[in-house]
Design goal:
Number of domains: 1
Strand content: under 5%
Low-confidence stretches: none
Radius of gyration: 39 Å
Helix content: over 70%
Mean pLDDT: 83
Structural class: mainly alpha
Number of helices: 3
Order of helices and strands: HHH
Oligomer: single chain
Shape: rod-shaped
Amino acid sequence: MISREVMLEIYQAADQVEKEMNHFYQTGTRIAHRTKIIIRLVITVFLCIVVLNFTMLYSFMGEMKAVVGNMIDMYTRFGTMSQDMHQMTHAVINMEQNIRGIPTIAQSMNNMNTQVNDMSTHVNTMTDKMLGIDQNMTVIGGHVHEMANRFEHLTYTVHHLGYNVNQMSGPVRTLPFP
């Protein structure tokens, strides 16, 4: 037969184990709750950043399209100006033949014509580069879309992580201790 003191000691040991298990359960629950809050907060911040990036990228792409449109318009106007300069050069050359006293004007007009042609070439080069930038922006938009998909997958994974933590804490909840 077990003595009263041994029974009392067993009861006290069982009571101590029950208190420690309860303490572990409460600590685990607090940690799981805090972890869930932190993960949700981080995902919310990441989603806000992604939305902000999409907004800024959309705005930037709109501005780039406007710049490309203006560059094309400018290129067209430089082409018209180049043609006008050719006509003016021919008119000056005709004037030079009639008036031999002003050969420097014809030379200046030829220089201006060359410079306008060079400007037209440079504007054409700039337009090509802007079109390349526009294509690169499309690629960047694809990468941002891919990043958004990855964040969506991360959200799904974190949700399942919370579910798994809940499943892992199931055996602790089934213990007969209050």
